[in-house]
Design a protein that fits this description.
Elements lengths: L2 E14 L8 H8 L8 E14 L10 H16 L2 E2 L14 H13 L7 E7 L5 E4 L3
Parallel strand pairs: 1-3
Antiparallel strand pairs: 1-2, 2-4, 4-5
Bound molecules: nickel (II) ion.
Nickel (II) ion (NI) binds next to strand 2.
Length: 137
């Protein structure tokens, strides 16, 4: 059977501040610049979730993307949309909310609710220009 990858694109809006409490305020400003502003700032995040699998000969689908959308909404978007990622999301507690770290945590959330071995890639973008991709390594 052919193996095909299918992707669902989603969006969420959230605020964050990049700050490592183990570093001095000076170091934080040097590393994160404006992203370290105490009041935080917001992004319209893009999220891509890719699954990989055989095409079901009966449905012609690898996975029903409506079901994937539902799973991502329940496991991820419900918690992060219109949230402050530094304080509102239990599964981001203690995590510096960069796109990289958010992608890893979203992978871990989704891995638990999707059929084993199907999750292939999670991409989190903060803007058209910046994105982070995680594949479970
Ligand atoms: Ni930012």
């Amino acid at each position: 059977m052919p193996i095909v990858r299918v992707t669902r694109r989603l969006h969420f809006s959230a605020g964050h501040r990049l700050h490592n409490p183990q570093l001095s305020d000076h170091e934080n400003r040097e590393i994160y610049g404006l992203c370290n502003n105490p009041g935080g700032h917001g992004h319209n995040y893009g999220l891509e979730v890719t699954l990989r699998g055989e095409v079901d000969p009966k449905t012609g689908y690898v996975f029903d993307l409506k079901r994937l959308k539902q799973a991502v909404e329940e496991a991820v978007l419900q918690d992060v949309d219109h949230a402050n990622l530094n304080v509102d999301v239990p599964w981001l507690e203690g995590v510096i909310p960069t796109a990289e770290n958010i992608a890893v945590q979203i992978w871990r959330r989704l891995e638990r609710v999707l059929p084993e071995g199907m999750l292939e890639r999670v991409v989190v973008s903060e803007s058209e220009r910046n994105l982070a991709e995680y594949s479970g390594e």
